[in-house]
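Translate structure to sequence.
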């Protein structure tokens, strides 16, 4: 949803996408629970904290229910207004009652909620800023390919197959742009790969691949969209191995291909958009991002990182 960096997520259900296990969060919960037990020493001491947590959860759930009922189910406004007024009023009474025990432990769930909310909204805001600046640096993929055709005498073509993973299917990968602008080379065969995770558990083989020749049929540069179900491992090399030469612009040797990943170096600057302390939090949070090589099952001995620096 864009509120946290990419973490390792394990799906535990083939019918419900929301049933997941996140190892990093689970270990964080373990440390947090042990800390609370050692700090409060008894369940009685946690009574007020538990009461505030329950009252807050019920209130938030009620608000979200009516939000979905209004935007998703298109329920009558008058009915929602009556129901929301009654239920939220009761929930707020429970919440207010627990606020009287604020100094006795009810502050704890509020502090945890405020911390989580701050981290998640900071990451979302920082991600928006970085994405905007990254898109400006990358430019449009089709425009970049057109530029390569015009400057073919300045860019040396080397043998082999290069695969560039890119989150966007319209922007030029930073790694490809950096390779061309700084090294003045590109590979004979270039496959730009975007991975999409579907809402279904598994994706049919016929819908796995989508090929785009980018309006130049003989330049050796193509764009591939790979689709995986949420219950599948996004094994990019295995999916690419199913491609045949007649589907692409020549034979792509994915068995010996080099995989290029775009990497962004974040630096704190004076750019507007966030307070300095939120910038520091955003940069610190970025360090827990899961390894893309492992996530997409890439061979580590053939992965190259190229990218650029972005100031937040």
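Result:
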């Amino acid at each position: 949803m864009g509120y946290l960096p990419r973490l390792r997520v394990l799906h535990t259900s083939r019918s419900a996408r929301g049933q997941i296990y996140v190892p990093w969060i689970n270990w964080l919960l373990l440390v947090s629970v042990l800390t609370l037990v050692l700090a409060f020493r008894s369940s009685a001491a946690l009574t007020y904290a538990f009461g505030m947590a329950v009252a807050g959860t019920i209130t938030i759930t009620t608000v979200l229910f009516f939000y979905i009922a209004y935007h998703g189910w298109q329920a009558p406004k008058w009915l929602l207004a009556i129901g929301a007024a009654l239920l939220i009023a009761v929930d707020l009474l429970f919440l207010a009652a627990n606020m009287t025990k604020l100094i006795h432990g009810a502050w704890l769930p509020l502090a945890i909620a405020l911390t989580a909310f701050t981290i998640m909204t900071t990451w979302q805001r920082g991600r928006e800023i970085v994405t905007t600046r990254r898109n400006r640096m990358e430019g449009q993929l089709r425009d970049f390919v057109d530029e390569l055709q015009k400057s073919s005498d300045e860019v040396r073509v080397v043998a082999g197959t290069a695969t560039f993973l890119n989150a966007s299917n319209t922007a030029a990968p930073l790694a490809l742009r950096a390779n061309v602008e700084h090294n003045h080379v590109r590979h004979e065969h270039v496959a730009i790969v975007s991975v999409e995770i579907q809402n279904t558990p598994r994706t049919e083989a016929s819908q796995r691949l989508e090929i785009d020749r980018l309006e130049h049929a003989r330049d050796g540069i193509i764009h591939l969209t790979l689709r995986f179900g949420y219950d599948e491992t996004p094994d990019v090399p295995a999916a690419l191995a199913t491609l045949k030469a007649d589907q692409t612009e020549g034979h792509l040797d994915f068995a010996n291909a080099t995989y290029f990943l775009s990497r962004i170096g974040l630096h704190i600057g004076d750019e507007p958009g966030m307070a300095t302390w939120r910038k520091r939090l955003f940069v610190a949070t970025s360090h827990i991002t899961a390894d893309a090589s492992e996530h997409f099952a890439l061979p580590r001995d053939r992965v190259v990182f190229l990218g650029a620096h972005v100031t937040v």
